[in-house]
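User: Teach me something about this protein's shape.
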Amino acid sequence: MKNNKITGVIAGNFDVIHPGYIHLFNQCKKHCDKLLIFLHEDPSLERESKLKPILTVEERILILSSLNQVDEIISYKTEAELLIHLKNNKIDIRFLGDDYKNKNFTGMELNIPIHFLNKILYYMHSESRSSFFLRSRSRCSCIFIENIL
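Assistant: First, the predicted structure itself:
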């Protein structure tokens, strides 16, 4: 019997989970049977414009693994390692924010079908809802969400 399950993937550092991420994961899950998260351990190591995550990789894995939309989590350190994961996993659809339209991104040469997500919708029309805003506003506070789903 053929396995016709669709595997989708989204990559990011997912530091400080907020309601926008939950909406994002809900939308991803509508387009796939299995949602795979590629978790960037620390994007600030390769890109100075990125902030160092507040939560450890282990803490982010704990939070993400508690969400019923997420089926598997694979962490990676570099964009080169992300490319290897994209090549070595059976991926039917990749989810990217619409801010990646008409831009180069890791793995674009693999021709994995892309579903662009409207980030404005998922961050509730407010910059103050994004994790970048939350992390840059207060580097000392963390948000814990209990019983999300």
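Now, about its shape. The first strand starts at residue 7 and ends at 12. The beta strands are 7-12, 34-40, 72-76, 93-97, 114-117. If you'd like, I can walk through any region in more detail.
User: That's plenty for now, thanks!
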